[in-house]
Design a protein that fits this description.
Blueprint: E1 2-10, E2 13-19, H1 35-45, E3 61-69, H2 75-83, E4 91-99, E5 104-108, E6 111-113, H3 115-125, H4 143-151, H5 154-201, H6 207-219, H7 221-236, H8 241-273, E7 286-290, E8 300-304, H9 313-325
Antiparallel strand pairs: 1-2, 1-3, 3-4, 4-5, 5-6, 7-8
Length: 326
């Protein structure tokens, strides 16, 4: 039963609240008074196609709210239960909004709903009688209810519906159990695979710490390489230490070569100063004294004991003849 109808910004209606009582309610008026607008507003609340032309000029949206009395055994309750809507009490409120852009939204007891569900609910709540209404007999959706009502099989139909709902509940439980079983098998396969990988890895005590240190070192590898490259650039640069070390090494090598050459020339002079004959001259006796330096040095230098007197030319010639005769 329709209890009330509230209309906001529909065609020419700015604001209208209607309340209906039990029994026959009649709306009368002249042609063009707006009776059809009331029917269009009610149809909009029951899932009729929404158009932007229904919105009053200058308004942002049109809103229609209809309130119904819903007995406990009304077939609309079964439809709402299947759709997941819980209806408390004996009343039901449906609401429909249409924007100026043609978009619409539907609500059942202030819960969002689809327009299709709202249309199915409207067919169970309101029966509109009009011209060519006999065509409703051709709707297959009404044939079963008409046949059950004619045969008086309300109890059998209710038992069948109860059995069907129980079967659907058991089917859902079976599907849930099969899903849980498949998930458990998948988890078993994963755990077996993980266990096989752990057995292949053979983790050792303290290995995690070592791996963490190695990972930290590898993570800082780029930073270490950059620091080493920078240090090499500093050493090999124009002002680096490598160039200074090379220069010092060259200087030391030159000093070493000079020292070796000086030692070789000194040894040669000492050998040239030594007497050629094994028999020493009485006037040019040379005494060998050790070289002043480290003890046990092998090199010696010749030091004259006394300067011999200068000999005359005749004396030298005589000595040469004597030595020739010998």
């Amino acid at each position: 039963m329709l209890l009330g109808l509230t209309i906001r910004d529909v065609v020419l209606i700015d604001r209208l609240d209607l309340a209906f009582h039990a029994g026959l309610c009649v709306l009368t008026g002249e042609t063009g008074a707006g009776k059809s607008i009331l029917l269009d507003a009610l149809g909009l609340a029951l899932g009729m196609r929404a158009e932007s032309g229904l919105v009053r000029h200058g308004a942002e949206q049109a809103v229609v709210t209809a309130e119904f009395a819903l007995p406990r055994r009304h077939p609309a309750r079964h439809l709402l239960d299947e759709a997941g809507f819980s209806v408390d009490g004996e009343g039901l409120v449906v609401r429909r909004t249409v924007g100026a852009d043609g978009r619409s939204r539907a609500f059942i007891d202030d819960q969002p709903a689809s327009v299709g569900l709202l249309k199915q609910l409207g067919d169970l709540l309101v029966e509109v009688q009009g011209q060519f209404e006999q065509r409703g007999l051709l709707d297959p959706g009404t044939h079963r209810e008409a046949l059950d009502a004619y045969g008086g099989h309300h109890a059998e139909g209710a038992a069948l519906a109860q059995a069907w709902r129980a079967w659907r509940g058991l089917a859902k439980e079976r599907e849930a159990a099969e899903t849980a079983l498949a998930k458990a098998r998948a988890d078993e396969d994963y755990l077996r695979h993980a266990l096989a990988e752990l057995d292949a890895l053979e983790p050792q005590p303290g290995e995690e710490t070592a791996l963490a240190e190695q990972r930290s070192l590898l993570m800082n590898r780029e930073k270490l390489m950059a620091a080493l490259d920078a240090a090499l650039d500093e050493l090999a640069g124009e002002r680096g230490g490598e160039r200074a070390l090379n220069a010092a090494s060259h200087q030391l090598e030159r000093l070493r070569d000079k020292a070796a050459a000086s030692t070789a020339s000194r040894s040669t002079r000492c050998r040239s100063c030594a007497p050629r004959s094994p028999r020493a001259s009485p006037r040019s006796t040379m005494a060998a004294t050790p070289w002043r330096g480290s003890p046990g040095a092998s090199r010696r230098r010749a030091r004259p004991m006394s300067r011999p007197p200068r000999a005359s030319a005749t004396g030298g010639a005589r000595r040469r003849r004597r030595s020739t005769r010998r």
